[in-house]
Amino acid sequence: MKNFKIGDKLTKFPLIQGGMGVGISLGRLAGTVAKEGGIGIISTAQIGYREKDFDRNTEEANQRAILSEMKKARRISPDGIIGYNIMVALKEYASHVKAAVHAGADLIISGAGLPTELPALVSGSKTKIAPIVSTDKSAKVILKYWERKYKRTADLVVIEGPQAGGHLGFHREELESYTPEAYDNEIRKIVQTVKSYAAKFSTEIPVVAAGGIATHEDVKHVLDLGVDGVQVATRFIPTEECDADIRLKESLIHAAKDDIAIVKSPVGMPGRAIMNSFMQHVMAGKKIPHSPCHRCLAKCSPGEIPYCITDKLIAAVKGDVENGLLFCGAKAYMADKIETVHDVIADLFGTESECIRLA
To answer: What Gene3D superfamilies does the database record attribute to this sequence (predicted)?
Structure first.
């Protein structure tokens, strides 16, 4: 079976559990995935929402939670591979990266913009870094930039495709133009680009595909395209170990394929979510009252936004599924029961003999 190293740690499965904010990918989920032999990822996006002073001291609450969630994950998996997903679009991006390094992150995965400054922010640490790219063009831009400015390259690259959940790295027109076959070709191009940089730096750079990977067949398909592993996110929401409210988990189980749509975030970025009463109001042009600014996204103007993404993602993770933003992947409708992390990984990778044939 294919596997890869992060530093001196080797995965048992070529799997990264995707980072899902707010409050979906926390220490319990990440620690359990790492214990099972994958890479567990904690999302720092408004990670401190459960702290008592979150509304008054948002950044301090987030900083404490970045550390406490890693401690929780490490109690579950002392020797597993555990990292963070940190969005470039966050106002406090740099401080989140520094806090993650301080917490002992094995890996930082960074997207929602090109992480141009990430190498400088982890300088001197053992933390490995991985940009999220969606096209061959973006892969070339970030790898070339890191080479020229920092004389280094990525430790891993995540390719996030058009079937992913949450914020997407595509314009709406691109989402419509990328057929599965067309995006398969894009993945092949990115793999070749990354290989060229790996050769240039005499190293190995694992390439991991993400977006719409929900079944054993999906895993086999993308591995056949030449990637080294998969990142799976939505599949881990309806698990016992996910920290989200049971009502959010059940919303995926009850969702039909037609309930999942491309929506617009408050800052204009396209995303994928389950349609509910809240989103129907937004799509109809209604402006939703919101709380004072929690300083999440760098390009957000509180007086102009149709709704607050922090408010609505917190509502979702707490189980208010009619008034929350229910981000999910394109295949969320395939969920039919609450599972364990162990069961999800076993289903994705099949029996041991099948895993060997994936190599």
So the answer is: Aldolase class I
